[in-house]
């Protein structure tokens, strides 16, 4: 059960990254032709945000292909370790993307000429920041709740206590049948 939840947390984190990528890319496209100091700074932050997201997606694709190729050897030995490492890297990258999107939104808000494109870019940068930073707290809370409940459960307990009713006395079964 714990592995399934970890898998779904990884999927949720990847969906969050896709949403952030779409909005950060849209914000970058809306301010790329503006010659303002704040627009250049915001474009720099958004360009790094989009670059980090594309690098993460490339790493995810390489990881999935590696898992398909080397999976039978790696999963029994390093399965949970790899999943936790990937989850940690994805969470750290979501935090970085959220912070850079928030800084970019602040820089976009400081642009002197507020056209419709600038307002849309600011809205998109805010959506990227809120989506990542707001949802990462939800993912972390879910993970720690699941981790805490898994620590309280009995590992490996399947309800069988080893008592099948046979006490070792053959007189319990007079015909010799079990």
Give a concise summary:
By secondary structure, this protein is mainly α.
Written account of the structure:
It is a single chain. By secondary structure, this protein is mostly helical. The protein has a domain of 119 residues. It has 3 helices and no strands. The radius of gyration is 26 Å and the shape is elongated. The model has no long low-confidence stretch (mean pLDDT 79).
Q: Helical percent range?
A: over 70%
User: What string, H for helix and E for strand, traces the elements in order?
Assistant: HHH
Largest sheet: none
Number of strands: 0
User: C-alpha Rg, in Å?
Assistant: 26 Å
Which ranges are low-confidence, i.e. pLDDT below 50, for 5 or more consecutive residues? Answer: none
Shape label: elongated
What keyword list fits this structure?
178 residues; mainly alpha
Secondary structure layout:
Blueprint: H1 2-31, H2 37-109, H3 116-152
Helix pairs in contact: 1-2, 1-3, 2-3
């Amino acid at each position: 059960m714990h592995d399934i939840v970890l898998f779904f947390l990884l999927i949720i984190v990847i969906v969050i990254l896709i949403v952030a990528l779409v909005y950060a890319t849209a914000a970058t496209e809306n301010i790329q032709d503006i010659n303002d100091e704040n627009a250049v700074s915001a474009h720099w932050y958004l360009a790094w945000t989009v670059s980090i997201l594309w690098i993460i997606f490339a790493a995810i694709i390489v990881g999935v292909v590696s898992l398909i190729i080397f999976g039978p050897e790696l999963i029994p030995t390093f399965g949970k370790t790899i999943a936790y490492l990937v989850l940690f890297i994805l969470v750290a990258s979501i935090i970085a993307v959220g912070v850079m999107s928030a800084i970019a939104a602040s820089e976009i808000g400081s642009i002197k000429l507020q056209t419709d494109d600038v307002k849309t870019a600011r809205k998109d940068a805010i959506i990227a920041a809120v989506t990542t930073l707001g949802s990462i707290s939800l993912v972390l809370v879910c993970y720690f709740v699941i981790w805490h409940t898994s620590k309280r459960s009995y590992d490996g307990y399947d309800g069988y206590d080893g008592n099948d009713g046979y006490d070792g006395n053959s007189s319990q079964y007079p015909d010799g049948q079990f």
